[in-house]
Amino acid sequence: MELVTVKDGSCTVYVEKNLIKQVVIHPQIQQVPGAPDHICGIMLYERTPVVFCRLGDSGGCTCGFILGLRDGTMIGVIGEPGAEDSGEPEKMMEVMPGIWEKKCDTIE
Prior knowledge:
It comes from Enterocloster bolteae. This protein is mainly beta.
């Protein structure tokens, strides 16, 4: 699985490269009054509203990654782009469709 690293403050996630439809620099995201803290806002993409999620704690919005999910819907994630990587699914945990985190080692 090919992944792109996305950093949002202290949080690092890995986005499936094949799901990225567009990377938008300084996206024009409109805040939604009353939305939960993890919702950054919405933006129109190809005449379709896309909800952008905040996965970390940066509070900023330098880049937006628009993902086309397998069910035909779209979702956006904000963060700083990082390196491309290849992930082994058994070492990763899917936190949202197409968005992964590395599993933490546990001590028994």
